[in-house]
Amino acid sequence: MKTYKTLLSFVAFSVVASANAFSFTLTPVTFTTPNDPNPIFINGTVTVAANETYVGWTQFDAPFLTGFTAGFNGAPQNFTSSFLAWNGVGTYTGAIYEHHVNPTNLGYAGGMPVGLYNKNIFGPSGFSSIKLTYADSLGSTQTASALYGIQVDAVPEPATLGVLALAALALKRRRKIN
After folding, report:
1. What's 21-177's CATH class?
2. What strands lie across the sheet with 29-32, from one edge to the other?
3. What radius of gyration do the chain's Cα atoms show?
4. How large a percentage of the chain has pLDDT more than 90?
5. Cα 162 vs. chain centroid, distance in angstroms?
6. What distance in Å separates the CA atoms of residue 135 and residue 140, rounded to the nearest whole number?
7. What is the SS3 assignment for 170?
8. Is 165 exposed, middle or buried (CB count within 10 Å of its CB: 0-12, 13-18, 19+)?
9. 125 and 117 in contact (C-beta within 8 Å)?
């Protein structure tokens, strides 16, 4: 009976000791406009436990529209310098990947077509994703994937709307004075 209890204790300890604490999440949808000149940052969080080791990225599945008529697949699309500079210890929170609106993207025609870019036939269940690799507490190589998408809307971003509102107020005030 004592041997049985010792064996059960060992099995229970092994299961607990091999539990992975590594976690990886991305902002599900990032919003932009068809001609946004700024980088489109995909933000997220990566947490590595003290007994785990971050190895690097394994797979990147660029986002496309349903039907693959347009996508964020042209150069430059890269992991951010801040994420690449992270030492892989503890938690990283911030920009992980950056996309750009540019003529080398599939479907670009003076801008990106409006819609949700979150499909990729090579990604998990056909969605765009990033996959990271780490070594767990037992030294085994593991991967973690996170899905994301980019929503392109024709509506200008809030700063542009603010400038338009100020211009409208100035015109209205000018008309009252005249």
Report:
1. mainly beta
2. 29-32, 149-152, 115-117
3. 23
4. 74
5. 28
6. 5
7. helix
8. exposed
9. no
Structure tokens at 91: 């938690």
CA 129 – CA 124 distance, rounded (Å): 7
Q: What is the dihedral of CA 162, 164, 167, 172, to 10 degrees?
A: -100
Tokens representing residue 129 in the block: 């994703």
Cross-strand partners of 132: 57, 144
Band of the pLDDT at 171, cuts 50, 70, 90? confident
CA distances from 14 to 7, 136, 142 (A): 11, 13, 17
Tokens, residue 13 = 């300890």
Residue type, 127: F
Reply yes or no on whether the pLDDT at 123 is more than 50. yes
What pLDDT does residue 12 have?
Answer: 34
Q: Binning pLDDT at 50, 70 and 90, where does residue 90 land?
A: very high
53-61/40-48 β-pairing? unpaired
CA distance 154 to 34: 6
Starting at the edge strand found earlier in the chain, the sheet holding 78-79 runs: 23-26, 40-48, 90-99, 78-79
Question: CA-to-CA distance for 132 and 149, rounded, in angstroms?
Answer: 17
Q: Note the Cα 14 to chain centre separation in Å.
A: 33
Per the DSSP assignment, residues forming a β-bridge with 128 are none
Contact assessment for residue 133 and residue 142, using Cβ atoms and an 8 Å cutoff: yes
Q: 19 near 27, Cβ under 8 Å? A: no
